[in-house]
Amino acid sequence: MVRSESEPPTPPPGAVFLSYAHEDADAACRIAYALRAAGVEVWFD
User: Fold this and answer.
1) Cβ contact 17:11 at 8 Å
2) For 28-43, how does the pLDDT look when each residue is reduced to its tens digit (9 = 90+)?
3) Domain residue ranges in the chain
4) How far, in Å, CA of 29 to CA of 18, rounded?
């Protein structure tokens, strides 16, 4: 499958895409850290 340059990259299967509001950035970072520590690949928005 060819991806156009206007499409965002797609996380690989089993990865987590974490999207958050600006005011929740600290909590999102803590969640991402915990997931990564558990071996989960995390993509941030």
Assistant:
1) yes
2) 999 999 999 999 999 8
3) 12-45
4) 9
Residue for token pair 């996380």: 11
C-alpha distances out from residue 36 to 20, 26, 27, 39, 40, Å? 17, 15, 14, 5, 5
pLDDT value of position 6 = 74
In angstroms, the CA 17 to CA 8 distance is 12
| Distance of alpha carbon 7 from alpha carbon 33, whole angstroms | 27
* pTM of the predicted protein model: 0.67
Sign of the dihedral through C-alpha 33, 35, 38, 42:
negative
User: Do 35 and 42 meet the contact criterion of CB atoms below 8 Å apart?
Assistant: yes
